[in-house]
Amino acid sequence: MTISIKLARTVKDLLMMAQTEYFDAGHRTCQGCESAMVLRWVAKAAGPNTIVIGATGCMYVANTTYYTTAWALPWIHTQLSGTGSAVVGTAAALKALIEKGKLPNEKINVIGICGDLGCADAGLSEVSNALTHTKYNFLILMYDNESSANTDIQETTMTPYGALTTFSPSGKQVRIMKYRWKKNMAAMMAVGHPEVRYVATATAADPIDLYNKVKKALEIGGPTFIHTLDPCPKGWGYDPKYSHEIGRLAVETGIWPLFEIEDGKFRLTSTSARIASGEIKRKPVKEYLRRQTRFKHLTDEDIEYIQKKVDEMWEKWLIPGLIPLTRELPYPEVTKASTK
Amino acid sequence: MSVQAPSIYTIEIIYRGIHQRHLARNLSRGIVYAARMAGNVALSYQRYGDDPERDGVPAKYFVVVAKGANEEILDAEAARVEPDYVDVSIVLDDTILKGVESWAWQGIQPVHLKLRAGGLLIVVSKRSPDELLKFIPTRDSPYTLVVVYGERSIGDFWTFPDDGTVERVLGAIAKVMPNVLTIDDVKRYLESLDKPSERVNRALEAYQSLVKLREVKPGEGLPYKYEPPHLPGWKDMMIGGAIPGLKPNQRNPYFTGGTAKHYRPVVNFDKCIKCSLCWEYCPDSVFDVTPDGYFNPVLAYCKGCGVCAEVCPVPDTIIMVDEMEFEDGYGKFIDEYRAWKENREAYRKWFESLLPKAQIISVRKR
Amino acid sequence: MSVSALETKRLEAVLKGDEEVEVVGTGTDAVAYALMLADVDVTSAYPIRPYGGVMQTVAKLIADGYMKAEYIVAAHEHDQFEIVKHASAVGARTFVGSSGVGWLLAIEAIVAISTDRYPVVALIGNRALDDPGAYGVEHNDALMVRDVGWLLVWVDTAQEALDTTLIAYRVAEDPRVMLPVGISMDGAFLTHSEHVFRIPPKSKVQKFLPPYDLGNRKLHPSNVISVAPQVNEDWVTEIRKQMDEAMKNARKVIEETYRDFAKIFGRDYGNPFVEPYMVEDADVVMVGMGTVSKPIKEAVRRLRAKGERVGFLRIRWFRPFPTEDIIRYLSGVKVVAVVDRDYSFGSPFDGGAVFTEIRSALYESERRPLMMNFIGGLGGREITYNDAINMFNMALDAARKGKVEQRVIWYGVRE
C-alpha cells in the first residue's frame, strides 16, 4: 500500500511539520535521556488525537510524578506487563463506544509505551496477543534501554551480551554474567504475527526515521509495533552529552539495523540501507562498545566475538537483522528430483 | 570537649545523582565506619525518594552519629524519610548550591533548607566562600560556610573516580567538627583501607590547608524565599490518581528539572546557521523557536546534558559553560536570545569571555 | 450453557417488550443475560472453570446479535483484567471474571482497577486454589481481594445472580462509589446447575441503570488528564483515604439501589446486606455465604418443626461488611455458628475468614454470643441438610451447656 501521508525528508521538515510539543519539558529523566527523546518524537508524530498508555518503567516513574505530568496528551499508567492488554482494551472501548454512538466518530491514535523489561520479558504474551487483534488500531512502542533502568540497571533479555548490569556484574570468578544473546524482538513480532501490517526498528538518534515510522504505523492501522534502541547514559555509562552519538554508532556499527516491514515487505532504512547498499562501510563494533563503561571489562577477544556475531547478522542471515537463518533453500535433494 | 553539644549529630550529603552516587555512598559509609571505630554509634540512609537516581538530579544521603552512646539512641533516627534538621550539610558539587529540586510540588529547595541555626554548610569547590555566597539563598539564621578546596568529582554508574574527594571531606569534617570525628578518627578509618598512606595524606592535606571558613549572617546571600508547597487534602484531589494534563507546548509548571545541570548551553546567535539540530535533539524540549528562526534555550528546564552542543555543526556556536559562571538560578534564568537581541555587541563580548571557560566538546569538531 | 432455539424467542421479548420472561438456565447464564440488558461495551474472556460458562453464553449472545460488545479473548487472566481496566478508563462499561488461581493470576490488575477507581464488574466463579488442581467451590479466591477496595457480594440463586449483576453496575458506577464489584457464585452448585429464573425487560433496566459516566476522569483527547502517575509518600495516604470514603459511601448507595430495584422490577430483597431466615427468637444462628444457604435453610425448617429455636443468616455483601446488621441479628443469640467455605490459616482463632470478621464485628456488641466455626465444604465437598442438622445439634449442645468446647471444627474431615 502507498502511504498518503506526508513524511519528513530533512530535519527542516521536522521543524515545519512537528513544532508542537505534546510530551514537554519538566520530567524527571536523566540528563541526555534518549527514551525521553523517543517519547517526544512519538508524541509529535502522533499529534493531539491520541491516547497514550505508559507501562511501569523509567518512562513511567521519571515522566509523571504525581500531581504533575509532562504529557499534553491523555495518558494512563498500566502495569509492567500490561501494555498489550491496555492498548487492546482502549482501542476496543473506543470502537464499541463509537459504534454505539456513545462517542463521536473520529480517529484516535492509541499508543502503548513499554520498556524492554515490560515488553520483551514480563509483557511478551500480552503484546503478542494484542498483535493478533487485527480489528483494533494501536501502536505498541518498545523503548529499549537494554536494562531495567528504573530499578537500578538490572539485566533483561534485551541486555546485550557481556554488558554490566547490577544483576550481571563482572567479578573475580565470573567475568561475563550476561552470557545470553539479545532477543530479536521486532523480528519476532513481525514474523510471528504476519497479519500485522507495520513493524519497525528505530532510534532517537535518527529522528526523521523515527518520526516517519511512527506516522506510518499510525496511518496503516491495525496493531503495529516499533522497537527503538535508546542509549541510556545512566546504565550504559557514558557522559550524557554523547547520547546522540552512541545511538548513531549503534546503527553505524551495524549492531542496530534500522528497518521496517510494511505489509510484508522488508526494507532497511536510513543509515542501515546505506550500509547494505555499500554506500557507507560498517564501523567496527569496538567504536561503539569502548565508549561505554558497561563494557569496560570486555577483552579484545570478547569484542571480536561480538564483531563476529554482528558480521554474521549482516552477511549470513537470510534477511540481515531480521531472519537469523542461513540460506539453505531450495533443498538440494528436491531440486535434483524436480529437474529429472 | 569544651562545648556542650547535643548528643546526636546529623549530617546531610547532597550530591548529583549517578555522577556522584559512589562518592556519596562511600563518604557516608566512611563517616559511619570512622565514627564506629572511634567507639560511637552511627547509621546512614539515602533519601529514598531520590532513588532511582537520575543523571545530574540532586539527591541526598544522611548520616547520623551519636557520641559515646549505645545503639538505642539511634532508634528515633532510623526508619526516617529525612531528618527534621541537620547539623551539617555537605555539598559535593558547588553547582548544587543553585538549588535542589527532586520531586514535583516540592519546588526548588535551597541547599541549607534542613540546616540548623549555627550549622555548617560544607561545599567542595575551587571557589572562595565569598564567591560561593553569591549563589546561596539568604537565611533568617546564621551558619558557617566551609569550603573544601577541590575539583568536582564525577563518575558514572559503573565507575568511581577514586580522586581523594572522600578523604578531603573527611579531613574537613575533622577540622570543623572535631566533636563528631577527630583527625585521629579519620586516620584510623583510612588506615583500614587499601592505599592507606595516600588516603591519610589527602585527609591531612585538607585538614591542614584546604579548608576555608566564613561566618554567614542572617540576610547574607542571594535573595530567594523558598515557599514550601501546599499539598491538597484528599477531598480536593481527583480520585483514582488522576490529575489534569498539560496543554500543547506548555512546559510542566510544577517541575522543571533545571537543577540537574552543572553546565549550561550558551548560544552564539551570531554564528547560528538555524539548522535546528539543537532543537531536534534536545530530550527536554528546551529550545524555543524564535520568530526569526533561532533556537533559544529555556534554561529553567535545561538539565545540561550537552547533547545540543555536541550535535551543533558549527564549532563554538553552542558551548557548555559551568553553572558557577552565572549568578542566576532559582527559577530565574538569563534569556539568552533576548539579551542578544537587546545588545548584540555586549552579548558577543560576554560570549567571548565565556568561551575559554567552556567545556571541551568532541575533539573531532575542533 | 448456551442459548437454545427455545430461548431466542424469550430473549427477543425482553429486548423489545415490557414484560419479564421466565427461562431455565445456569447461574452463569443468568449473569450473561444481565450483561446483555446492561449493554456492556467491552468484555474479556479467558477459559477457566467454573466461571467460563458466562463467557460462552455472552459469546453466543453476541454472535446471535442479542448483545453488542467488543468480545476479547485474552492471553491470560492478567491480560483479561488489564483489558477491561483500560476499556473502563475510556468510558466503556465492562465485564470480566475468573475463578480460583486464574483470579489470583490477575491480582496485580485487580488491585489497579480498584485503586484507579474503575467500576468494573467481575464474576468470581468460586473455586478451590491449586495445588493440587481442584475445581470445586471454595471462597478463598474471592476473599484474597477483601482488603484492596473491591466490593464483594455473594449470591445463592440464578435469579439473585442476574439481579445482583444489574445492581452491581449501578452501585459501582455511582459517583460516590466508583469502585469495582466482584460477584461471587459457588462453583458447580450455582454456576453449573440449571434453575428457573426471570429476565426483566431491557426497557426497565434502562430506567434502573443510567449510562456509565466517568465525568472528568474519562480518558479522551478532549479531556487531557494523566492517570496514576508515580507518587511518593506525600500522597498515598490521601489516595487510600479517598477509597475508604468510597467504600463507606457504598453502604448507603447499596441500600438506595436495592430500594429502587424493588420499585422498578418488583423484586424486593429486603435487607440488601444480609438475608435473615428465622432468626427472631433463635438460640442458635448459623451464618454462611453462597449456596450453603440451601441445605441450612432446610435444616432450620426441620429443626424448627421439632421445636428447636434455630435460624440462619446469609451474608450477601462481604465488602462493605455489614457490621450493623451482624450486631443487630446476632447480639443476644446464645450461639453463633459460622460455616466457612474457606480458611484463614494462622488467623486469630485458626478459623475461617467469615468467622474471624463476624467475631470482630461482635466485639462491639453488648451481648456477645458464644461462637463456633465450621470449616466445611472445601474443594466442592457438599454440605447436605443432614450435615447442617449435625452442625446445629453441636451448636445447640453448646447453647445448652453455655460454653463452646471446640471453637473451630473441621466438619467431616477424615481422621
UniProtKB/TrEMBL annotation, chain A:
Enzyme Commission number(s) from the entry: 1.2.7.11
Naturally occurring in which organism (per UniProt): Vulcanisaeta distributa (strain DSM 14429 / JCM 11212 / NBRC 100878 / IC-017)
Highest taxon above the source species: Archaea
UniProt entry keywords in alphabetical sequence: Oxidoreductase
Protein name per the record: 2-oxoacid oxidoreductase (ferredoxin)
Single annotated GO MF: pyruvate synthase activity
Reactions catalysed: a 2-oxocarboxylate + 2 oxidized [2Fe-2S]-[ferredoxin] + CoA = an acyl-CoA + 2 reduced [2Fe-2S]-[ferredoxin] + CO2 + H(+)
Subunit text: Heterodimer composed of an alpha and a beta subunit.
First-tier enzyme category under EC: oxidoreductase
Domain Thiamine pyrophosphate enzyme TPP-binding: 56-227
TrEMBL record, chain B:
Top-level taxon of origin: Archaea
Keywords: 4Fe-4S, Electron transport, Iron, Iron-sulfur, Metal-binding, Oxidoreductase, Repeat, Transport
InterPro entries: 4Fe4S_Fe-S-bd, 4Fe4S_Fe_S_CS, PorD_KorD, Pyrv_flavodox_OxRed_cen
GO MF terms, alphabetically ordered: 4 iron, 4 sulfur cluster binding; metal ion binding; oxidoreductase activity, acting on the aldehyde or oxo group of donors, iron-sulfur protein as acceptor
Pfam families per record: Fer4_21 (PF14697)
Cofactor(s) the record lists: [4Fe-4S] cluster
Domain 4Fe-4S ferredoxin-type per the UniProt entry, residue ranges: 263-292, 295-323
Protein known as: 4Fe-4S ferredoxin iron-sulfur binding domain protein
Taxonomic source organism: Vulcanisaeta distributa (strain DSM 14429 / JCM 11212 / NBRC 100878 / IC-017)
TrEMBL record, chain C:
Molecular function, one GO term: pyruvate synthase activity
EC assignment: 1.2.7.11
Protein's name in the database: 2-oxoacid oxidoreductase (ferredoxin)
Residues in Pyruvate:ferredoxin oxidoreductase core domain copies: 282-387
Keywords on record: Oxidoreductase, Pyruvate
Pfam short name (any one): PFOR_II
GO biological process: response to oxidative stress
Assembly description: Heterodimer composed of an alpha and a beta subunit.
Reaction(s) this enzyme catalyzes, per UniProt: a 2-oxocarboxylate + 2 oxidized [2Fe-2S]-[ferredoxin] + CoA = an acyl-CoA + 2 reduced [2Fe-2S]-[ferredoxin] + CO2 + H(+)
InterPro entries in UniProt: PFOR_II, Pyruvate:ferred/Flavod_OxRd, Pyrv_Fd/Flavodoxin_OxRdtase_N, THDP-binding, Transketo_C/PFOR_II
Residue ranges of domain Pyruvate flavodoxin/ferredoxin oxidoreductase pyrimidine binding in the record: 34-257
